[in-house]
Amino acid sequence: MAKKSMIAKNEQRKVIVERYAEKRLELKKALVNPESTPAEREAARLGLQKLPRNASPVRVRNRDAVDGRPRGILTKFGVSRVRFRDMAHRGELPGITKSSW
């Protein structure tokens, strides 16, 4: 089980990313737009720098939905590899069966 403070911090980051997503997208478009002037690009770059660090989606960590484990996450299911194995053995994941050959 991950520390509750780390889980809470990650949840707060998700909220901040969502809050600033539209503004970040506009600034990023201004940076890559070939028709924008160098002054506009500079303004967009400075605008991006003024946003909070946690507004960047890269800073959000994928965590296990059940216990918050930060590594080995299977994105399709939202749980860690360890939790996935346990849930699959107990039959809690529909359509998942243990393979044998």
From TrEMBL:
GO terms for biological process: translation. Belongs to the universal ribosomal protein uS14 family. GO terms for molecular function: rRNA binding; structural constituent of ribosome. InterPro entries: Ribosomal_uS14, Ribosomal_uS14_bac/plastid. It holds the Pfam family Ribosomal_S14. It comes from the Bacteria. Gene3D superfamilies: 1.10.287.1480. Binds 16S rRNA, required for the assembly of 30S particles and may also be responsible for determining the conformation of the 16S rRNA at the A site. Keywords: Ribonucleoprotein, Ribosomal protein, RNA-binding, rRNA-binding. This is Small ribosomal subunit protein uS14.
